[in-house]
Specification:
The structure is a homodimer of 521-residue chains.
Chain A lengths: L1 H20 L14 H14 L12 H8 L3 H14 L2 E4 L3 E4 L27 H11 L5 E2 L12 H14 L1 H5 L8 H11 L12 E3 L1 H13 L5 E4 L5 H10 L2 E4 L2 E2 L3 E2 L1 H10 L2 E6 L13 H14 L2 E5 L12 H10 L14 E6 L11 E4 L4 H9 L7 H12 L2 H27 L5 E3 L6 E5 L6 H10 L2 E2 L1 E2 L12 E5 L6 H18 L4
Helix pairs in contact in A: 2-4, 3-4, 6-15, 9-10, 9-14, 11-12, 16-18, 17-18
Chain lengths: 521, 521
């Protein structure tokens, strides 16, 4: 409870700015004659800000509130609807209204600058480090700020359970027999429809089901490159790209990347003109680890560049569905321009963008169901998959298909986004409060992670080991680059239920980071 | 019924030889004073031979037979047990006694000779052919002599269904969350125990769970070779080896192979001394397509050769559990020497044999659960898998684990072996009867396929296309070599229930082959 109080203080102090922006300011003017429902909405938003109704908690039912405040049920309904529009409340079906936070946290500290990687292609030298570190990450820890996956309490386990039972009952044979590449047609048809949300218009026959996004990326990289080829990646980039480059025998060049808007196209263009780059591998939406979101017009320009220099693109969109913007109507509009609802693949006219994604981050990682749309490399991907894994598990493919058929998924995604969005300010506040002076933080527009730069003297790998002793996991920045530029950065997973334990763990991390920043061994 | 009659004639004519061998001859001598049960056993074996009780059918229950023949229940029980010992009947739990055929079919035609492949390393030139052909094979056909998998009626679908339900109910979270390489420990522990049946003594920590045997082989090939390396394969060999060699960028040299005893070690030794072979890829038990079984002492000698020349071995044991020998005690003893119950990996002292197998051929191909024991290349295999597929589906791994825990598997394997064993003489008889003069056939000691050499002028790819028009699938021999030496051979899958339709399809195939042999376009 001490936590709630403290947290509410923080919310209270930081709110006024947002409050004005959100247009509620006019309602606070006592000179205006307001309808009852607006007055109630105003009172309730005050209550939310002062912590009467903490973020994540349920507010009284419409009927109960009408009793409490002595107004009609219809007035309360209108007030709740107003607060929902403004992003203070969210409705959960069959449950009620919950307090949420749709503010994009404001940082006291300066934003992270454009990265400055090596300007030369390099062999990947860190694959051993990455593998060792990941072996550690997979060990259970009390507080998992490590792996970028949502806590299982955020996932629809019970619904999936029901669909597993249904598939095993009604599709026994099909779920147990071979499903060869390109995978189950029913699922591919659903994917073709879903991808149109991101502006991708393709046929189910363009899609190949894979064992998660990792296999999709591997197959695409192998299809479009030869050992010894050079690929361009973000900086920082998903460590899997580096590891795979090493596995496949590729060299990488890291392109300066803005933590807000993604890979610098100016720097990319320069690199394309200087080096024999074969392929660009990137995550245009909610990149891992920085959370960068490439604006729509830059996504388009990226594809133009790829056309001009005749190179391929592997686009990893695994976090694409986790946009924080969809919680309010106003946010949604802005997000259209930000790039939250489009991908580079949407601008691909000649099949050079190989789009990859999966259900591992939003539904279940254990089912191993991902997919790719490999464009002109379709046949190479099929050929490679046919003799390496054949396809993903038939059972898994049919479970996902059965689940998607019942339109559970969109409802689940809304709830998942809401849960992560609610967590974001709490994490940002805690980092700002407890981490050493000079800490900078990139507040993402989607995904599951925040990217935190400690003061330069604090070594993140040391922090990682110190935290492990206290059963807290995190990923040190050194894994996301082939250079040493992120040795003081950490990636924190924010996709678990906020609790006293989480709060204490961030406080502990902050104290450890402070020690390291102070040069304390 | 016409079929049964005709078939029984065939059985009748070909039986006497076996009959004498099996030692029942003495019982037919009316001068001997026999116990009642032996006399009954004798009468019944006569009935089986004359088709009163056709192969595959259930004989009357012990109680019913005692009524029919006017003898005690105990006499019938003893007679049935005697017939079981002799291989005429097999007991199925909770069902009764079934007529079976444990004779190893005798061929009228000469056996297939040692193969004579190119004596030079070659690039794999047939990968496109293989992929196209397989895309066709995956289309549904009325009669599937193509893919080397058992008909789904041979698989324990209902039991698996129950285990899927149990896992989804009691291990929901674990079945849906990441299971990283090397895979689920419980399953690895079961595998370590199972592999001791084949003489492999390893720890669960030596095992890596994979997406089927195909991924196991891929990971092992990639771990132990570099693009451009040369590997030695059987001739004919599993087309996946050729396709993967092409994918990974390896050259292959085909080693002359005996359809009975497998790869010629003499030819292998010569090749090892002449060429820079990096790795030998083979199937020592029930090789695909020939069904060759490398005798135990040759398996041992193979490993000695690999030691001497310091090369690795990828051993694909996917058909290892399907030995035809286990149906009688006498057969079992012979099979020990034949190699049915051992593998090359059992003789591996320094981790150079990479053992690969899966449950795809015996339980479910759709679950995608295989494994490997990659010896000295363990870490490379883990590293590669970690970033390509992570592991097999958690759900699938736990379903197999749950199934194995209840000792269903051994009972199922016994029944599966029996079903395939019962089919073998029927297929061989039909091929001998309907296929053109000069057809040779290799009768395997295990696995799911028979390898048939048509007269040389009959082109098997042409036969494949002609058969497809009649909704019959098969695999032409050209897929199993990089040369043209098997252009007149076909692989037929015998693992489906014998029926009029199967019989008719073989008759049709025979007529088509006759046309081709006659030079009829």
């Amino acid at each position: 409870m001490a936590l709630s109080g403290r947290h509410c203080d923080a919310v209270y102090h930081s709110r006024p700015l947002f409050f004005r922006r959100a247009g509620l300011m006019t309602m606070l003017n006592p000179q205006l004659k307001q309808p009852l429902y607006l007055q109630l909405a105003e009172q309730l938003s005050d209550d939310i800000q002062t912590g009467v109704y903490p973020v994540g908690q349920k507010v009284p039912s419409v009927r109960r509130m009408s009793e409490l405040r002595g107004v009609s049920v219809s007035t309360v309904s209108q007030a709740y609807a107003r607060l929902e529009d403004l992003g203070w409340l969210s409705a959960r079906p069959q449950s009620g209204y919950y307090v949420c936070s749709n503010r994009r946290p404001e940082c006291r500290h300066e934003q992270l600058p454009l990265s400055s990687p090596e300007e030369q292609p390099t062999e990947v030298t860190k694959s051993a480090l990455i593998t060792n570190m990941l072996a550690q990450l997979n060990h259970p820890s009390l507080i998992n700020f490590g792996a970028a996956i949502p806590d299982s309490s955020f996932l629809p386990l019970r619904q999936l359970q029901r669909h597993i039972q249904q598939v095993s009952r009604y599709q026994t044979r099909q779920a147990l027999e071979y499903q060869f590449a390109p995978g189950y047609e029913g699922l591919r048809q659903q994917l073709a429809v879903r991808m149109s949300n991101a502006g991708i218009h393709c046929h189910s026959d363009d899609i190949i089901i894979t064992n998660g996004c990792a296999e999709a990326i591997t197959l695409c990289l192998r299809a479009a490159t030869q050992p010894g080829d050079l690929i361009a990646v973000e900086s920082p980039c998903y460590y899997g790209f580096l590891q795979l480059a090493s596995t496949v025998g590729l060299k990488v060049i890291e392109i300066p990347t803005d933590p807000e808007t993604g890979m610098s196209l100016e720097a990319l263009q320069l690199a394309l003109s200087q080096w024999p780059i074969k392929l660009i591998a990137l995550t245009s939406r909610f990149s891992n680890p920085s959370g960068a979101l490439m604006p729509t017009r830059r996504q388009e320009k990226l594809v133009e560049l790829a056309n001009r220099f005749d190179v391929g693109i592997v686009e990893d969109d695994i976090y694409g569905e986790i946009s924080f913007a969809e919680t309010s109507a106003a946010g949604r509009k802005q997000a259209q321009e930000d790039g939250s609802f489009s991908v580079a693949k949407a601008f691909d006219r000649d099949g050079r963008v190989m789009y990859c994604s999966s259900f591992s981050k939003t539904l279940s990682a254990g089912l191993r169901v991902g997919w790719c749309v490999p464009g002109r490399w379709y046949q190479q991907v099929i050929d490679e998959q046919t003799f390496t894994t054949f396809s993903s598990s038939s059972l898994s493919q049919r479970v996902v298909h059965s689940y998607l058929q019942n339109s559970h998924y969109d409802r689940h995604l809304r709830q998942l986004r809401r849960q992560v969005t609610d967590n974001l300010p709490q994490f940002v506040d805690a980092v700002e409060r407890y981490f050493p002076e000079g800490t900078r933080i990139n507040v993402p527009k989607g995904g599951y992670t925040i990217w935190v730069a400690l003061p330069e003297q604090a070594n993140a790998e040391r922090l990682y080991y110190l935290a492990r002793e206290r059963s807290i996991s995190l990923v040190p920045g050194s894994l996301f680059t082939n250079s040493d530029q992120f040795d003081h950065c950490v990636r924190l997973n924010i996709a678990h239920p906020w609790s006293d334990q989480t709060h204490q763990a961030l406080k502990t991390l902050g104290a450890l980071a402070q020690q390291l920043a102070d040069g304390d061994p």
